[in-house]
Amino acid sequence: MHDAGSSSARPAHWPAGRRQSVSLQRSTAAAAAPAASAAAAARAGDEIFAADARPVILFDGVCNLCNGGVNFMLDWDREGLFRFAALQSDAGRELLVRSGRHPTDISSIVLVEQEASFIKADAVLRIAQSLQAPLPLVAAALGLLPRLVKDPVYDVIAGNRYMIFGRSTSCRLSDARFSERFIST
């Protein structure tokens, strides 16, 4: 993970949010293998950011709600600030590990930046801050709510997304206009 003070491609107006980063510190009783695993997790996904520093939004590729959200973001992110990867893809699993999450955890949207990751409502609101108006204002207003309120609402929607919105049989395929925005590995 990069130092929080390092320069990055994220806009300066993005608010601080819940960060998830992999700690490289281990107790002295920990074996060398877990420490090596933590170091590997911290480096996971480095190649994804090597040539393109734009943040990556991880989404459930078989969820109709999530695919609709990606379509919405493509329409409202006219500057191309974000890239996308399905949570179920190799790149998605690698970035989940980088974010300190289990590689098969598809319970939340994850916004992965070079130096930090955001989940649940924090991810949604951080993304909305960078989309076209009026979404930054809506995000700022909703950001005033405590996490104690935002995350349970997110969890109820996420936990029922297949029942309410259904599933796709496969991951969303991007159209040619947006192919450079999707990480397919």
From TrEMBL:
Which InterPro entries does this one have? Answer: DCC1-like (IPR007263), DCC_oxidoreductase (IPR052927)
Disordered: where is this region?
1-20
Q: Which GO terms describe its molecular function?
A: protein-disulfide reductase activity
Q: Which Pfam families match?
A: DCC1-like (PF04134)
**Superkingdom of source:** Eukaryota
The protein's name is: Thiol-disulfide oxidoreductase DCC
